């Protein structure tokens, strides 16, 4: 996908997919393991989920390459298999959905704190993102999605890396509190302005809280950027049950009604994060067809 093609696609509301991780855990994935390795051993579970998202109306699905950078894979001693794993994970998604929808190469934070709070330098982050994004483009993704980002500088490193090794459009979403503040400092509007300036094709928020708490955040982003605004929130706020599982407080219909409000306030690239399922995407799709 070229940046021009992405621009044309986003002239109308674009429907992303919903959660991956929370659905895999519901399907039996244990905690604390390498998600990417588990998916490679249980690819049918991921493929059934992505097929269900497409059937529900998703126009873009995220390849399960979320933790496929050298630092995250290194926690499991798998950093030397980075290229092999990212290729395989993209192929799993492409096999599931073909070319009827777009497949985004999913990247996220390295999990290391940026200087001065930690020892991750801009150069280290840049090199790690160059490495993964190059592999993702070689594997045939249509665009890049940098999601669940918690540091503006690290996200800028990812964008700079993408610009140096790829011509694909990049969507960027930060994780924020209900007031728009970012975990490591700054806020969603500052991030959006900086990321648009650095070449992002679309900017916004994902994960964090439910759509009911993000109306002013989305509106403020929309008022300050000229590119599409992304909203991919959780299914409300989770409560931890007796087994240690997160139980989210919104059902699919309730979630979709709140997403309609976010669309009215400027979001035009929309989907769901933790706690959402294909049913949530289906309900949003119904609203879009009204």
UniProtKB/TrEMBL annotation:
Its cofactor is Zn(2+). SUPFAM superfamilies: Homocysteine S-methyltransferase. Pfam families: S-methyl_trans. Zn(2+) binds at residues 207, 273-274. InterPro entries: BHMT-like, HCY_dom, HCY_dom_sf. It comes from the Bacteria. Gene3D superfamilies: Homocysteine-binding-like domain. Keywords: Metal-binding, Methyltransferase, Transferase, Zinc. Residues 2-288 form the Hcy-binding domain. PANTHER family: SLR1189 PROTEIN (PTHR11103). This is Homocysteine S-methyltransferase family protein. It comes from Blautia wexlerae.
């Amino acid at each position: 996908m070229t940046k021009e093609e992405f621009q044309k696609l986003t002239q109308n509301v674009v429907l992303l997919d919903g959660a991956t991780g929370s659905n895999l855990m519901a399907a039996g994935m244990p905690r604390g393991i390498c998600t990417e390795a588990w998916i490679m051993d249980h690819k049918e579970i991921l493929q059934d989920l992505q097929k269900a998202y497409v059937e529900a109306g998703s126009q873009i699905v995220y390849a399960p390459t979320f933790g496929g950078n050298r630092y995250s894979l290194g926690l499991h001693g798998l950093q030397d298999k980075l290229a092999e794993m990212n290729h395989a994970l993209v192929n799993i998604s492409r096999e599931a959905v073909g070319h009827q929808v777009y497949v985004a190469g999913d990247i996220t934070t390295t999990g290391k704190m940026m200087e001065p709070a930690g020892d991750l330098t801009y150069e280290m982050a840049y090199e790690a993102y160059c490495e993964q994004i190059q592999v993702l483009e070689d594997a045939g993704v249509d665009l890049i999605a940098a999601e669940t980002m918690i540091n503006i500088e690290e996200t800028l490193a990812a964008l700079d890396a993408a610009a140096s090794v790829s011509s694909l459009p990049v969507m960027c979403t930060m994780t924020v509190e209900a007031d728009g503040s970012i975990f490591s400092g700054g806020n969603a509007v500052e991030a959006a302005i900086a990321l648009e300036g650095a070449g992002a094709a679309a900017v916004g928020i994902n994960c964090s809280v439910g759509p009911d708490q993000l109306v002013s955040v989305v509106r403020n982003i929309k008022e300050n950027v000229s590119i599409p605004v992304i909203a991919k929130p959780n299914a409300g706020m989770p409560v931890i049950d007796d087994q240690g599982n997160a139980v989210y407080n919104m059902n699919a219909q309730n979630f979709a009604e709140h997403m309609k409000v976010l669309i009215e306030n400027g979001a035009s690239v929309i989907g769901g994060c933790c706690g959402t399922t294909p049913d949530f995407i289906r309900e949003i799709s119904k609203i879009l067809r009204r």
